[in-house]
Design a protein that fits this description.
Strand content: 25-35%
Structural class: alpha+beta
Number of strands: 8
Helix content: 25-40%
Order of helices and strands: HHEEEEEEEEHH
Oligomer: single chain
Distance between the termini: 52 Å
Radius of gyration: 16 Å
Amino acid sequence: MKNAELFRHIPLFRGLDDKDLLKLAAVATEKTFMPGDVIFSEGTQGDSMFIVNFGTVRILKQGKEKEEEIVRMSSGQHFGEMALLDNETRSATADAIEHTELIRVGREELEKLLAQDAALSSRVYKAFMKYLCNRLRQTTSDLTFMREVAQR
């Protein structure tokens, strides 16, 4: 399956073998967005993550006065993964900057797959934990740096 190859390069799925990636790819769907299309909005219920197959996505966060661009995502990057782990609302808005194809992994579909295979479930959640721990470490480092800059 072509999506399994894309999954192989996603940091979130690092450590999963080809068999695991094929199973994950089997529950994924492709979604196409045009420039300006909103993929999801800040404050809405999260139910899926996305992998950029091609195109560019902006992640925006509402500030005090206006929406601020946080980051741009391009081919091989992913976003929205926290929605697979919790039942919280989206912390940001995502929109397409250009014609964009995304691979969507839904929480419901993923949970059904993982309920059928305890060993796969363990490997997937371990990969998620490693990825999110690394992201938290990076965020802590970034925050420390920003505080040091602000104190100068």
